[in-house]
Design brief:
Number of strands: 9
CATH topology: Ribosomal Protein L22, Chain A
Number of domains: 1
Radius of gyration: 15 Å
CATH class: Alpha Beta
Shape: globular
Helix content: 10-25%
GO molecular function, one term: magnesium ion binding
Distance between the termini: 29 Å
Number of helices: 3
Order of helices and strands: EHHEEEEEHEEE
Length: 174
């Protein structure tokens, strides 16, 4: 079986806080709670990309919004792994570092993505691979792990998919 993973890339140039009105109220509140423009921009763009991922996966019109639940398994606060609030899928993951934001969605298997500036970690390739695996909820040796080529120089990224079969990645640049 082939698992199809859609990966959306964007950068801070697409962060326009006026677009926050396109988000469900809880996501708008998550953007507003941050104090620095860069942090607000990363969170805004990530939330907008999650909406795009959900619309594409569900065949929804461009103006549709889907609630996101981010309940943390450990403490119950709204900073955990994003899932569609209605539980209907797809599996979602989001990551951001510096200027770059990435979201991945897969209808058939858990998915994790991580992006990191190359100067941020001593062995950034191993770091992003491990973070992607953790975000997908995978143990060592489970699923499929892929290095990704981010659209901006100076970054490394990895994707982990909870399926041992073939993985097809479809890229979307916004």
């Amino acid at each position: 079986m082939v698992s199809i993973v859609d990966v959306w890339w964007a950068d801070l140039r697409s962060a326009d806080l006026r677009r926050a009105d396109q988000l469900p109220p809880p996501e708008r509140a998550r953007v507003a709670e941050l104090t620095t423009p860069a942090d607000q921009g990363r969170r805004l763009v990530g939330a907008l990309l999650l909406q795009s991922a959900l619309r594409v996966a569900r065949g929804l019109p461009s103006e549709a919004t889907v609630g996101i639940d981010r309940t943390c398994d450990a403490c119950g606060a709204q900073h955990g792994r994003p899932v569609a609030a209605d539980g209907a899928g797809p599996h979602l993951t989001v990551s951001h570092s510096g200027l770059l934001i990435a979201v991945a969605a897969c209808a058939t298997a858990p998915v994790g993505i991580d992006v990191q500036r190359i100067g941020d970690a001593p062995d950034v390739a191993a770091w992003v691979a491990l973070e992607a695996r953790i975000k997908a909820g995978l143990a060592a040796g489970e699923g499929t792990e892929l290095a990704l080529a981010p659209p901006l120089p100076g970054y490394a990224a990895a994707l982990a998919v909870g399926a041992a079969a073939d993985v097809t990645v479809r890229l979307h640049l916004t």
